[in-house]
Amino acid sequence: MSEFFKSEAFILYGIPLLIALARITDVSIGTLRIIFVAKGLRYLAPILGFFEVSIWLGAISQVMENMTNLTNFFAYAIGFSLGNYLGMYIESRLAIGMVVVRIITKSDSSNLVRALRAMRYSVTVADAQGNSGDVKIIFTVIKRSGIKMVQSLILEHNPQAVYSIEDVRHASDPEFPFESPRMQRGFGNFFRGLRK
After folding, report:
1. Percentage of residues in the chain with pLDDT exceeding 70?
2. Strand pairing report for 162-168 and 98-105
């Protein structure tokens, strides 16, 4: 087996592949770590940081030991690029955190408000003045996993509405539908303990 790791084929193809995989892994972890820091998960971020730097040291040591092979440099760069993409994709699938949704509508928004409240979202409605007359502004704080549901409600009831979605680091006791009370307590307590 040791002969295989010393073979020319492994040096030319195996080491670059391992470097790329290591970079994909450590950069994915690093991307998640930065996002978790931004969301206030201060105890989870250092744990990810430990694994991130350990894998990075392994990858960079292989590059330095095999500097004559240009393929290693390309593998390092490709792994970095793919790792960024994969980290953002994983984070989007996890959908951790909360967002505030602001909806501005000129037409009657009562059906949309009723639909949001029927889904157990807390909704605030305010009168405002737009460029071409009176408008309604609807505010709600939701879990990121509920974005698609809210967007579908907007398209169904007020397709001409203008809306924006922004990350929220902390909200005081928001109501999150689509979870059983038991799961809500479990996950809520876990992430509450990881936040500042």
Report:
1. 80
2. antiparallel
| Number of Cβ within a 10 Å radius of residue 43 | 11
Higher pLDDT, 89 or 8: 89
Cβ atoms within 10 Å, residue 29: 24
Structure tokens at 163: 């809306």
Pick the CATH number of 98-194 from 3.90.1150.10, 3.30.70.120, 2.60.120.330, 3.40.50.12160: 3.30.70.120
What pLDDT, on a 0 to 100 scale, did the predictor assign at position 137?
93
Burial class (CB in 10 A: 0-12, 13-18, 19+), 21: middle
In which band, very low, low, confident or very high, does the pLDDT at 185 lie, cut at 50, 70 and 90? very low
| Boundaries of every domain in the chain | 2-94, 98-194
d(CA 44, CA 193): 10
116: pLDDT confidence band, cut at 50, 70 and 90? very high
Specify which residues 100 forms β-bridges with: 141, 166
Q: What are phi and psi of 170, to 5 degrees?
A: -150, 140
pTM: 0.60
